[in-house]
Amino acid sequence: MELAKSITALYPDLIEQGGLGNALQAVLSSIDSSLSVSGHDKSAPAYARVELGYRFSQIYIAAKTRMFSFDFWNRGVCLAHGATPEILEVARSIDTWIASPCTIGELANRFRFVQVEPTATAYERGEEAEQRWQEYRDSLGKSIYGIEAFVAAAMAEPKLRQLFPYVTFLNRFCFSRCTGWPFTCDTPQVVALSRNQYEVISSHGKSLGRGNAAEAVALVVAALPPNCGPAVPGTADDLSAG
């Protein structure tokens, strides 16, 4: 009850329009934007999504103070976040991002409330796979016991270093043929059993063998899909559609 009262008091414009999606659409229309709001209905009046091509933004509202929070995505990667109490500024920044070819840096220069992700520049330069490998080399061993030896060995193997590395919530080290989410899941995964001892698991969940870092790298390479080239911008869905 209290939450409902605060929403009513903080967002009378949204209440009048019948929800965030309707209100945002009205503001986009008022600035002559051709974008359409999607991903909103009566069951989610405090959420909206605007999408065109590879770019999209998701918009939410805060409960205790008037604030719109939103993000800026391209090819399955979140490059920046924004927050402002003014829905007009939400609309302007989203229209600039989605309806134009601007870079994330240009967007942040125009709208001071846009906070760029540290990895965004690497993504826009096409260097995201290499940056992720460097990050894992520098920090992954601190979070997943024993994986650092495998990461070092994998980085020395060109067939693996050209792929985009990621870690699942089960602490499995994986390789994607694309750099955006959702990632591909058709390559082997690696589990650290102890320091410098690993198990390689196929994309279907079958154990392919165990060994030290060098042996695990060899097992992964042998089980890569045919014509497994460098990771490309986009998502697994993009690759399937292509």
Overall geometry comes to: elongated
- Per DSSP, the total helix count is 11
Task: Summarize model confidence as the mean pLDDT.
Answer: 91
Please report the total strand number as a whole number.
11
Structural class: alpha+beta
Helix content: 25-40%
Number of domains: 2
Order of helices and strands: HHHEEEEEHHEHHHHEEEEEHH
Q: How would you describe this protein?
A:
By secondary structure, the chain is α+β, with helices and mostly antiparallel strands. It has two domains: 2-124, no CATH class; 127-241, no CATH class. It is built from eleven helices and eleven strands. A hairpin with a 2-residue loop joins β9 and β10. α3 (20-30) packs across α4, α7 (128-143) packs antiparallel against α8 (148-155) and α8 (148-155) packs across α10 (213-222). The longest helix has 16 residues, at 128-143.
